[in-house]
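Hi again,

Forgot to attach this to my earlier email, sorry! This is the prediction with magnesium ion bound. I've pasted everything inline since the attachment limit keeps bouncing my files.
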Amino acid sequence: MMHPPGTLLASASGKGGVGTTWFAITRAHALAARGRRILLVDADFGLANIDIQLGLMPEHDLATVLAGSIALADAVMRHEVGFDIIPGRSGAQSLATLPVGVLEAVLASLRTLASGYDLVLLDLGSGLAPALRHLAARVDALLLVITEEPTSLTDGYAVLKLHAQDCSRPIPLHVVVNQATSPASGQRIFATIAQACRRYLATAPDLLGIIRRDDRVRDAIRRQTPLLRRHPATIAAQDIEAIAATILT
Ligand SMILES: Nc1ncnc2c1ncn2[C@@H]1O[C@H](COP(=O)(O)OP(=O)(O)O)[C@@H](O)[C@H]1O
Ligand SMILES: [Mg+2]
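Structure tokens for the complex follow:
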């Protein structure tokens, strides 16, 4: 699934709390550890929290950029484990309704910035507010994070349905099942959503991977330390490493 350099890959979920942010961070870490140049953008305008999960105190963030005070490139900060971050700002709700012109300008800057990276990961959060729907339709690929909970599945399907309406040209769709009780049950959940997509949306998402439920994830987040550093051999870390390998093959 090797992406060309500079690819913009957005991730989103229907329901919140499924692990979209944690997965974006940990995937960025795993890919950086494999020598890839990764930029992680916190574009979850309502509930941005990449900085919180990592215990960072950013000087600038996406909200400052959107307010016109600084350039996008100046909001980039480096995480010591080897990837770059553009932090978001939690509670900046008004950003969710930004005019299309502003969004397009940000996208253009992001494209320019992306040329210096192998992969740009955008965390769009849950529910796809209007501005985020616009972004999701303009990136190169969309990744949906779901869990085994029925509400995560129905809300996730709703996101893909809106996305199908927004896209003038189809982009690759990927699904990750997080917090799975087992690989087999993760597979079943993926099969359910993939079937609904084929039948009603004429789209065919692929399964990027399954991440098992693992209490060490909670522990790492509570300690604001990347999982791959704190618990590099735990089950969820193994599953993320497998996904990183898939992304790079
Ligand atoms: N694989 C996992 N196993 C166990 N708990 C997880 C896993 N992934 C995420 N979590 C839990 O889910 C919570 C929400 O994660 P977060 O990334 O903030 O979700 P979202 O961005 O979708 O709202 C985390 O605090 C963590 O405790
Ligand atoms: Mg989040």
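The chain has a mean pLDDT of 94. The CA atoms of residues 98 and 164 lie 21 Å apart.

That should be everything now.

G.
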